[in-house]
Amino acid sequence: MSDLTRLTAAELADKIHTGEVSAAETTQAHLDRIAAVDGDVHAFLHVDAEGALEAARAVDADIAAGTAPASPLAGVPLALKDVLTTKGVPTTCGSKTLEGWLPPYDATVTRRLREAGVPILGKTNMDEFAMGSSTENSAYGPTRNPWDLGRIPGGSGGGSSASLAAYEAPLAIGTDTGGSIRQPAAVTATVGVKPTYGGVSRYGLVAFSSSLDQAGPCGRTVLDAALLHEVIAGHDPMDATSVDAPVPAVVDAARQGARGDLSGVKVGVVREFSGEGYQGGVLRSFETAVAQLKELGAEVVEVSCPNFTYALPAYYLIAPSECSSNLARFDAMRYGLRVADDGSHSAEEVMSLTREEGFGAEVKRRVMLGTYALSSGYYDAYYGSAQKVRTLITRDFAAAFEQVDVLVSPTTPVTPFKLGEKVDDPLAMYLNDICSIPANLAGNAAMSVPSGLSEEDGLPVGLQIMAPALADDRLYRVGAAYEAARGPVLDKLGELEASK
């Protein structure tokens, strides 16, 4: 039998549901893989072997009893970003502030995974409170890119992307506030999707920036991501921002796209996402990808979105402002870390000392920036102005989608950089999200799919596909068609690993 950790989620589901392999056997294979390689990769903060195997055995019992699987992914294990609450299982958000916290409830995404019979292998590493582009801001140490252990796996969801690339999990969940699903996918040669804002419930997702945060599926293929998307998506009355609309037929779209025909699809190349600051190998990979879309029958035109150039500064006012408000809840009074609790300090002193010790440098930087932007006399000049820019970016998208069905660009301007290379240069770090941020500001759907390896350094490059809100299915059709034409990229990592 082939190595179970190398199969796609769709392949594993088929084998489990037909009885060729058991869910418990499949889950154990991935737990063994985690034990073998995660000491080097550090994708996981907590591994829940007992919980995962219990869930897998329940699926096996249903199949043995002739009960239909709870979902198309029942029995297929998954890695969960440590920003989503898990009842009785640690949720730290990569921060000392929540070290050892055992939530009393499941996030809606977690609950839907459990109801779908998906064993949760554990919680993955991340930049603290999802603030970062490299997973170097975790209080528990950085995650490493399986392509090169000296390089970053992207952020903030580098643990989820690295778990996929290291074959520790066939599926993962990430969250995307400014690119934290798509950027890690791009630099690890995996697939990551930011659904339409409100398309997946945020209940139980520890908030960074409430108007931007969005959970989404991560996988090694477009079809796998689509199958996971349909499991976790849908309206949730527990989330006031949840969209009460049917889930787009993303699985059907992925299967249609895999047939390789994009006739009648209009693709817009965003003029503003090229030029200075973009690595030559990234741009050449993107140009090759666009040529392949044409060969598949798509009509390709250039589209200008002039206000996209202001997305980065607007984001770094909006997101820190919302973060300064959201993180005020960590007051050392109710749960989480508490220092100087010897009775000799006032509540205010305990709160201040706890935040000083519990929050890392990047979180403190954003809290201070956001608090300043919201302060009296500056609100309109900073936060208010940034929201006006957000409106202009949304209008750019609307105008573009009157001309085309989807927009494409590189996912990131560069390939994965070395650990430590940009950690002391916040601006250089923030620029990694220059292509991904506009979709968050507008609430649109967006995907990163591997577009090959850079000719310069042999490291992964991603193609970003963007679609209008509630048109997530367009991402999957175009992404699957491109993936089929391009051929596998991650297999090259397996070949590289086997040769060592």
From TrEMBL:
Similarity-based family: Belongs to the amidase family. GatA subfamily.
Entry keyword set: ATP-binding, Ligase, Nucleotide-binding, Protein biosynthesis, Transferase
Known partners and oligomeric status: Heterotrimer of A, B and C subunits.
Active site: 81 (charge relay system), 156 (charge relay system), 180 (acyl-ester intermediate)
Catalytic activity: L-glutamyl-tRNA(Gln) + L-glutamine + ATP + H2O = L-glutaminyl-tRNA(Gln) + L-glutamate + ADP + phosphate + H(+)
GO CC annotations, alphabetized: glutamyl-tRNA(Gln) amidotransferase complex
Enzymatic class: ligase
Region (Disordered): 134-154
Protein known as: Glutamyl-tRNA(Gln) amidotransferase subunit A
Organism the protein comes from: Prauserella isguenensis
The keyword Membrane belongs to this UniProt entry's keyword annotation: no
